[in-house]
Description:
Layout lengths: L2 H4 L4 E6 L2 H11 L3 E6 L2 E5 L4 E6 H8 L12 E5 L3 H13 L9 E3 L3 E7 L5 E7 L13
Amino acid sequence: MEFAQIHPIQDICLLVTDIEASIRFYTEKLGFRLKHRAPGFADFTGAGLTLALWERDHIAHHANVRVKPGSASAVLIAVKLDSPAEIDRLYQELSARNVEFVGPPADYAWNARGLYFFGPDGETWELYAWLEGGAPGRVEDAA
């Protein structure tokens, strides 16, 4: 069996430039709960997985992992919601917390209602729910 089929993703780590600004964003605006905090690092509990933040200068110094400038914009974190109505509800809730969106909720050609915003380092967030008929293009062999 292939690696990805037997080893589930346990957490997602974002490599950020300002750990304090990112902690504030994820706790105050999105409601994550801080689980661990160390110099240059933090992680949070959320529904279904652990979200971690690691400051770019810290990981470069301690693990020799260097991030190319501007690369965070290539990261997209998707959250599947139960219904299109939930997209609209969260848009109102997060707007009240001053989350800035790319635009209002919209129905997209891939049969989903979606909503997009950016985190402090340019990481892209997608909230989506399938419209009537669900996800298109299902591959029959997929388990």
